[in-house]
Amino acid sequence: QVQLQESGGGLVQAGGSLRLSCAASERTFSTYSMGWFRQPPGKEREFVAAIRWSGGNPYYTDSVKGRFTISRDNAKNMGYLQMNSLKPEDTAVYYCAARFGGGVATTTMEYPYWGQGTQVTVSS
Question: Residue 18, Cβ neighbours under 10 Å: how many?
């Protein structure tokens, strides 16, 4: 069972950048596909980006396309979300999630493993 831990959140001004990291406990992390989700204040958790176990086929929700980049380093058991041109509406708790094998998945129900989340606040 893989355990996940996010880091890298914080307070940033609009237009700024942050890089979120997701550390996985499992040495077979390379066999898991990975996703990033976020939960804005008072709203449901929503899909942000996902990537296959191999690092291919990155997929993004429309609102972050061209601004966010998902990546992973299987040798280090790490996943990343580079966030550029941040907007106040990106403010949320960000979660990384993993699922064994499979391709890109975009719903919370498809991911059995979750981190605790990291807060991202974008000021205007």
Answer: 21
Alpha-carbon dihedral sign for residues 6, 24, 2, 48? positive
CA–CA separation, 93 and 41 (whole Å): 8
92: three-class secondary structure by DSSP: strand
Instruction: List the single range of 14-18, 28-32, 57-61, 94-98 with lowest mean pLDDT.
Output: 28-32
Q: What is the full DSSP assignment across 5-39?
A: EEE--EEEETT--EEEEEEE--TTGGGEEEEEEEE
Write out pLDDT tens, residues 23-52. 999 778 888 999 999 999 999 999 999 999
- Measured distance CA(103)–CA(85) in Å, rounded: 28
Q: Which one-letter amino acid corresponds to residue 32? A: Y
3-state SS class at 45: coil
Kindly list the distances between the CA atom of residue 88 and the CA atoms of 48, 62, 120, in Å, as whole numbers in the listed order: 15, 16, 10
Q: Determine the residue type at 94.
A: Y
> What token pair was written down for 51?
């990537």
- Calpha distance 30→95 (Å, rounded): 19
